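Readers of this paper often ask what the protein records in our data store actually look like. This encoding replaces a full spatial description with a residue-level series of whole-number codes. For reference, a complete record is included directly beneath this paragraph.
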Amino acid sequence: MKPKQEQSRPSNSARKSTVRQVPTKPTTGKQDIPIPDFPSTPKREIILFAVTGMSPAVLTETVWALAHPAKGQDPIVPDRVVVVTTLPGKLKIDEELFTPTPNYGGLTVWQALRKAILGAAFESDPRLNMEEIRVISRRDPKQGRSYLLEDIRTPADNEVAADFILEELRKLTENPDTQIIASLAGGRKTMSALLYAAMSLLGRDHDRLTHVLVSEPFDDPALKPRFYFPSVEAASEQLHQHPRTSAVLSGADATLWLADVPFVRLRHLFPKQLGRYPGKFSGLVRAYLTRIEEISGPPEVSLDPDNLTLHVGDAHVRLTAREFALYAFLAERCRDGKPPLDRQKCAADELKNWINSWAERFGPGTNQRETLLTWRDIDEDDIRKKLSSIRQKFRTAGLAHLLHFLLPQPRVFGIRVRLKT
């Protein structure tokens, strides 16, 4: 959105070119935009959780947009602001938001923002408290210490950032008396993507994921001075000069939008099954994948007796003749709807009887006939060893997340698969 065209006006020194002029504002001290009457005791503690890079303005813009929502929506003032960033990002926040500036009458940008939103008593209002900035750190085994991350450049940096964001968010979402409003507007795209994923993994029904949008040209970081939030009072009107056109712009003309980003909330899928959330980002993703596999139902399995191979989805698992016979026994029991056996000894007796009829389906000299002739000493220990070997082959084929379907479980000697014929 571009600011409306205004008449030119001279600067302190004679101007040779025309620029946009800001309309004269009344100097009565009245507010141009009323400060909303915010509730002082929200039902839940509201926490703005943000990732940032080298543009701290996304924090002030998001806070302003929450406090001045679209018509028909309730204004929101976070109680706490939690920021995750790199070391240069922290230094940038300190420099831009917490250094007194004449542009705001000697206040810091953050103080000026709090005053604009909370009113004259902002210094005694506990809301909008930015907590100690969380700087992503990475372990250095060689030095035996951790160091603050300068940037997210490598896959290892990315993994560290993912775990860090997840852990910080976990601490907050474990408290039922909090509401998280996450902002993915700042930082590298990697950080925004990780925050989106973390919110999908841990976000609750009442949590929100947002992105702030600012009208042109106020989103340009080259404005002098930089834009942080719209002016409220005539006495504190902020003027910004465009670096390329030299146009003078009023911050009051800026428009901010806060967009809610839809995300799938997955945390309800599995707490009872896992007992606790895995500590690492990758571990939590694997846990959800396992749970989703469970919800989607047993995998489809086909048996290739000519090549002694099992086909599970796109995976192909080659077995020995005896392993294949054992698995065919389990698969046929599953297909026929027979209940699982409660002991491996019972399974050994059943397998001895079954293998005779199974081998008769195949001609002389086949692997199946050879299994019948040579595998006479079937016992519990032999079955246990065969299952252990099959389990390892499943793991090697990338099927570890399906083992609870593909192999017998303790005290349940049976499998749960869909046998494809």
